[in-house]
């Protein structure tokens, strides 16, 4: 009885194995693609990855950084807003620098006032005082001389009338009075001459140094207001009021690294460009010039847009993945080629968007 059941179970197991093998050997029908791959519109077209960017004469989209480190107090623009060169983008906390600039300004003004005081010398009031001192010294000298003359006359009438000590004291008083008059006159001349040339020169240099220090502080204070470097449009704002900004940008909690405070696109908002990266082994096949034909394909759609050749960035560089992270370099060198396109009305196309590009390489050589 037990052997019978063993044979039955073995047969069931074999049957299950056969059915399983047949079931799993059946190939499932492939799912249709989410969107049709971009077809090559040229007989000898070369495919390239492209990234949409704002259209400008030179470079790529402009990362905005602060030149100083401080807390963001105000953001004066919004994403998508058009700005003119010199417009305020954001304001940083510059209270300490403002106080420093105001202190240097006050010191410069005090130095200028001191220089003006030197150049305004002599004061009429001072000259009047020194002139009065000269008159007083002259009167004292006359009084001393008159006393000496009287004593000298009395001594000539009789030696017993005036002692020798009295006569010597009167003569010495005349000499002291003469010396006082000389000092008073020289003090008057010194006051009348005004400030010494070397003192004026020294104060002039002090004023110049303080004015330059103030201008430097004011220029530094101006850096706490970040302005648009060119005409363009704000593509993204990657900071917030209260965030800390530095010359390295601001910390992006999503990327886990520093990022620019803002990303700005130059040029006309209705005109875009596409930067394509051509593999170095395909460069020789590209007859790049004003007649070069290329087409852009928007991923996920059947939309195709013609491109206009602009320029080649004449430097073959290591390829960086389109996330633009330096840590993602691969062992491949590419040539950047820039095309321009008019922004289509019915198509949503934004800077930073990845697209497929085919470039006409002309007739293949034999």
CATH superfamily of the domain at 45-55 and 268-360: Efflux pump adaptor protein, beta barrel domain
For the largest beta-sheet, the strand count, sense and barrel status come to: 6 strands, antiparallel, barrel
Number of strands: 17
| Low-confidence residue ranges | none
CATH topology of the domain at 45-55 and 268-360: Elongation Factor Tu (Ef-tu), domain 3
**Spatial separation of the terminal alpha carbons:** 82 Å
- How many helices does DSSP assign? 5
Radius of gyration: 47 Å
Order of helices and strands: HEEEEEHHHHEEEEEEEEEEEE
Question: What oligomeric state do these chains adopt?
Answer: single chain
Q: What is the residue-averaged pLDDT?
A: 85
CATH architecture name of the domain at 45-55 and 268-360: Beta Barrel
In short:
By secondary structure, the chain is α+β, with helices and mostly antiparallel strands. The protein has helices at 2-25, 95-119, 124-157, 164-193, 197-222; strands at 45-54, 62-64, 70-75, 82-83, 88-92, 225-227, 232-237, 244-245, 250-252, 257-259, 262-266, 271-279, 293-297, 304-312, 317-320, 329-342, 354-360.
């Amino acid at each position: 009885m037990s052997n019978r059941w063993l044979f039955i179970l073995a047969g069931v197991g074999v049957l299950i194995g056969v059915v399983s093998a047949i079931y799993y050997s059946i190939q499932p029908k492939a799912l249709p693609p989410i969107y049709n791959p971009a077809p090559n519109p040229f007989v000898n077209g070369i495919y390239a990855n492209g990234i949409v960017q704002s259209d400008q004469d030179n470079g790529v989209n402009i990362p905005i950084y602060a030149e100083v480190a401080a807390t963001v107090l105000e953001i004066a623009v919004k994403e998508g807003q058009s700005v003119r060169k010199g417009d305020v983008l954001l304001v940083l906390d510059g209270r300490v620098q403002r106080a420093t600039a105001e202190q240097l300004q006050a010191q410069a003004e005090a130095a200028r006032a001191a220089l003006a005081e030197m150049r305004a010398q002599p004061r009429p009031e001072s000259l009047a005082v020194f002139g009065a001192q000269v008159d007083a010294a002259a009167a004292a000298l006359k009084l001393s001389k008159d006393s000496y003359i009287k004593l000298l006359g009395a001594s000539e009438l009789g030696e017993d009338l005036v002692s020798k000590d009295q006569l010597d004291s009167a003569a010495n008083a005349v000499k002291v009075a003469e010396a006082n008059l000389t000092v008073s006159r020289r003090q008057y001349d010194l006051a009348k001459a005004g400030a010494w040339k070397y003192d004026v020169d020294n104060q002039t240099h002090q004023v110049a140094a303080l004015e330059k220090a103030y201008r430097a502080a004011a220029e530094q204070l101006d850096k706490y207001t970040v302005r648009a470097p060119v005409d363009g449009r704000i593509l993204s704002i990657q900071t917030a009021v209260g965030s800390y900004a530095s010359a390295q940008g601001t910390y992006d909690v999503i990327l886990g690294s520093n990022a620019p405070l803002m990303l700005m696109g130059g040029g006309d908002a209705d005109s875009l460009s596409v930067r394509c990266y051509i593999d170095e082994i395909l460069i020789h096949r590209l007859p790049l010039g004003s007649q070069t034909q290329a087409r852009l394909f928007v991923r996920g759609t059947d939309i195709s847009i013609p491109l206009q050749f602009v320029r080649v960035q004449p430097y073959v560089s290591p390829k960086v993945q389109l996330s633009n992270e330096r840590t993602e370099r691969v062992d491949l060198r590419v040539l950047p080629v820039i095309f321009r396109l008019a922004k289509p009305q019915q198509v949503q196309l934004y800077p930073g968007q990845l697209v497929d590009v085919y470039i006409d390489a002309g007739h293949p050589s034999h």
